[in-house]
Amino acid sequence: MLRAWAGLYEYNTFDHSGIIGRHPEISNLIFATGFSGHGMMHSPAAGAGVSDLIAYGEFRSIDLSPFRFERIAENQPIEEHVY
Ligand SMILES: Cc1cc2nc3c(=O)[nH]c(=O)nc-3n(C[C@H](O)[C@H](O)[C@H](O)COP(=O)(O)OP(=O)(O)OC[C@H]3O[C@@H](n4cnc5c(N)ncnc54)[C@H](O)[C@@H]3O)c2cc1C
């Protein structure tokens, strides 16, 4: 083997979905992580949502509040159905 490549596979073991939104106590910390292997597909929406939070302080172009960090403490997993 002459060369190799490795990529970080960030994984949310709670519900395998991204975590997008503000930290509940640190208001200038915004999460966009834990996409669990489908972050490439979610990146346009995640980018739009995070841009909204930075520019307007709220989601405007797309409501990503179901992906909020607090859902883990609230035990509200996002069920993604694959057809
Ligand atoms: C093998 C593999 C296959 C995948 N296949 C798919 C797929 O088919 N479809 C799909 O939708 N998703 C897929 N994914 C998942 C997708 O690639 C990720 O969910 C997505 O890239 C996450 O984007 P991100 O911007 O959150 O993080 P990343 O793309 O990981 O970007 C993080 C960036 O931060 C930089 N960084 C880290 N630490 C620091 C620091 N201290 N200071 C400055 N910079 C730093 C890193 O260098 C990196 O550039 C796959 C992932 C892997 C590993």
Question: What's the short version?
Answer:
The protein contains one helix and two strands. It has 83 residues and is α+β, with helices and mostly antiparallel strands.
Description:
The mean pLDDT is 93. 12% of the residues are buried. Helix content is 22%, strand content 10%. A hairpin with a 7-residue loop joins β1 (19-22) and β2 (30-33). The chain has a two-stranded antiparallel ribbon with strand order 1-2. With 83 residues, the chain is an alpha+beta fold. The chain is globular, with a radius of gyration of 14 Å. The protein has a domain at 41-75. The chain is built from one helix and two strands. Flavin-adenine dinucleotide is lined by residues 7-9, 32-33, 35, 37-41.
